[in-house]
Structure formats: C-alpha cells, structure tokens
Amino acid sequence: MRRFLLILLVMFLGAAALQATEPALQLSGAGPGAVTVSPRTVANLPVVERDVTFATSKGPSTARYKGVLLWEVLQANKALDGLDLKAQLGRTILVNAKDGYRIAFSIGEIHPDFGNLPLMLVTAIDGKPLEQEWRLVAPGDKRGARAVRDVVKIELR
C-alpha cells in the first residue's frame, strides 16, 4: 500500500513539475476576465516561422523564431469582438515582462489591413522549444528593443 501511495505521489509531483515549466502568460482586457495563454491554448492556431535579425549593442543577433501571431491569439480569444474598426484601431497592447520591462504596440500596427506587423509569441528558437516564459518578437524591427523576453502579461487597453 505504501509503495502504491509513493508511486501516486511521484506521478502527481511529476505532472505538477511539467505544468510549472510550461510557458504561460495572462491576456487581460480581452473580455470579462484574464485569459491564460499557454502552448496548449494556441496549439490550433496557425504556426509561423521567421528568420529575424536585430541590431543589438553587441552586434547583430539572428535566430529562427517559431510561434503564433499575436493577432491570431487576440482573434481566437474574441478580444476585439463587438468593436467597430475605429474602436479597434484606438486600442493598444501593453506587453509586460517578468523583470518589469514594458513595451506598447497599437492594434493598427498588427492589424492585417493596416500595419500587418507579424508580432509573434514565440514557442521555439532555432528549433528548440521554450521551456520557461514566453518571448515576443517584432520581425521587421531594425533594433531588438521591442523583442521582449519572459513575457508574463499582455494587456489590451
């Protein structure tokens, strides 16, 4: 009996450890409550891959990013439903990192009919899946300042 309980405890703790390492972030302002975004919740969205090069203070940085477009995440969560185009274009996106770093984007920048910036929530870099927090990348930016590591919250305002 003790052996059975021990095995059950190990299985439970193992499952909890696996869940703890899955990247997750909160999407707020997309309805009455915050939505948790994880690799499982975006698994049915179209996957995009981009080779991205940014200028950094240490020279150019190039990587192949794989993930989903933030626009698709917003659409899947009906974040802009009920808003006419003018109201949508008046909204902003505030991306918050674990260390307090924050960057703002406008809906007009990522809307497919306007700026069409392929703002990506990254699930893998150079073929290696992310193991901890999300990363957000803005392909097309010349500098990497709007590429955010360890994203924990995205606010739609």
Question: What brief labels describe this structure?
Answer:
157 residues; alpha+beta; 10-stranded mixed beta sheet; 4 helices; 23% helix
Radius of gyration, in Å, reads 18 Å
Beta-strand residue percentage: 35-45%
Q: Which whole number gives the mean pLDDT?
A: 88
The largest β sheet comes out as: 10 strands, mixed
Count of DSSP-assigned helices:
4
General description of the model:
Helix content is 23%, strand content 38%. It is globular, with a radius of gyration of 18 Å. It is an alpha+beta fold and 157 residues long. Strands 1, 2, 3, 4, 5, 6, 7, 8, 9 and 10 form a ten-stranded mixed beta sheet that branches. The protein has helices at 2-21, 70-76, 85-89, 107-110, and strands spanning 25-28, 35-37, 48-56, 59-69, 92-97, 102-106, 120-125, 128-129, 134-137, 148-156. The model has no long low-confidence stretch (mean pLDDT 88).
Structural topology:
Blueprint: H1 2-21, E1 25-28, E2 35-37, E3 48-56, E4 59-69, H2 70-76, H3 85-89, E5 92-97, E6 102-106, H4 107-110, E7 120-125, E8 128-129, E9 134-137, E10 148-156
Parallel strand pairs: 1-10
Antiparallel strand pairs: 1-2, 3-4, 4-7, 5-6, 5-10, 7-8, 7-9, 9-10
Short recap of the structure:
With 157 residues, this protein is an alpha+beta fold. It is built from four helices and ten strands.
